[in-house]
């Protein structure tokens, strides 16, 4: 019996572990530590259909500070983050904040059921992106992911991974005060 099959299996397993480690590092990265990429770039005019069936274009929110949250029903941290963002959307709307959800890789039926389950189905509009095309336009790395856009439509901040109230206050409140 030769050692070759074991060497091949070991090399494949080692390669898979290496790939998993690289992906996990990116997906578990602290959103607060992620810089804007690229700095001060104009956000692409992501447009599509909301879960409510309406046409929506991100460019239509110019003049407002916009928070785009990328989420999926199968994302555990999204379940905690979305209600916090819904509360933020309600509180800061009078100051010019607009929040938009981008649901990726779910059917609209599954996404709507998830939003009803966590009690935020009417808090802000959610674009549906079952095939991930809109996420590619934005350059999304994973879920959750958060983008803060200035009033002129430029990307002011990008958070990869979950964000918390401190991150949101630090990156939203100064922009809303302008």
TrEMBL record:
Every Thioredoxin domain range: 37-178
Biological-process GO terms, alphabetical: cytochrome complex assembly
GO MF, one annotated term: oxidoreductase activity
Gene3D superfamilies in the record: Glutaredoxin
Keyword hit for Disulfide bond: yes
Location, primary (coarse class): other
Keyword Transmembrane: yes
GO cellular component assignments: cell envelope
Keywords: Cytochrome c-type biogenesis, Disulfide bond, Redox-active center, Signal-anchor, Transmembrane
Subcellular location as annotated: Cell envelope
Membrane-spanning intervals of the chain: none
Name listed for the protein in its UniProt record: Membrane protein
